[in-house]
Amino acid sequence: MNILDLQNKRFMNERNFYFSLALSEMFYYKLNSILIWKDERYFFCINDNEQFINEYGVFNTLIELLKASLEDNDFEKLKSIIPLENTKIKQEESFRYYRLIKEVFNENKRTISFETYNDFEFLKLNTCKIEILNNMDKYTSDNNIKYFSRDLKITDDKAFDNNDTVRLLYMSKDKVMTVIDVNDKEEKIKIKNFTDKIFFRAFGINENPSWNNYQEFLEDRCVPRTRYNIDEILKDMGMTEYNSFEFIKRTQGRMADDKEWILLGDTSYILEKDE
């Protein structure tokens, strides 16, 4: 193998790490790795359907994933070390064992800390995240992901037929639970639920939430405004005042004690970084 091939392989392996990390961070997929080249690891995720996923696609077996992504000689070498049919995949504890993960994500709240990543790592991670968002149908089994597009209306209300509408998807792992269309100027919202389980709906049994209900919902997915060090937290988030929507844009409404989160229909904010 010449030096160019070796450098390219290392680049692809590094990219695959960021891609798998983004999948794990977005959908709470289990982050896994296996040792292939000396001290280098090959990363992938496993979803709830026990499928193997990384930037190469979605596969039903680990063998299929490796065959699609490794060169023949690497695959043969791997087979000589480990019988693939009986491979026991080492489950890496997400967001604990890797220096980069520790730097990029707060271990308790799973939110981005704007003081701990460097710009280049942040760019690579979030480039992978945008690629996933733009091709979500490849990585999720939920058919309702089509509502990621704001063009698919959930109401006949004319007030929601304009560019003032923002769409939020209330997610449970990789499944859409509730679509929320927000008209900020009119202070109106419309919702559509995709689950019968009240606990997983954004507004529970309330199918016609008010604007105040919406504001309360957002704040419930944020750090409380009364927290003792809230000014320091806002500064770390690149914010000068408490704004629950801006907070959600940065954290996706992730909490430490559940698997729910909020995905905005407009993903352009992902690459924004406050100075």
What secondary-structure arrangement, pairings included, does this model have?
Elements: H1 3-27, E1 30-37, E2 40-46, E3 52-54, E4 57-59, H2 62-69, H3 72-81, H4 99-104, H5 119-134, E5 165-172, E6 175-183, E7 188-193, H6 211-220, H7 230-236, H8 244-251, E8 260-264
Antiparallel strand pairs: 1-2, 2-3, 3-4, 5-6, 5-8, 6-7
Helix pairs in contact: 1-5
Structure description:
By secondary structure, the chain is α+β, with helices and mostly antiparallel strands. The protein folds into two domains: 134 residues, no CATH class; 130 residues, no CATH class. The chain has eight helices and eight strands. Strands 1-2-3-4 form a four-stranded antiparallel beta sheet. Strands 7-6-5-8 form a four-stranded antiparallel beta sheet, with no helix packed on it. A hairpin with a 4-residue loop joins strand 6 and strand 7. Helix 1 packs across helix 5. The radius of gyration is 21 Å and the shape is elongated. The C terminus is likely disordered.
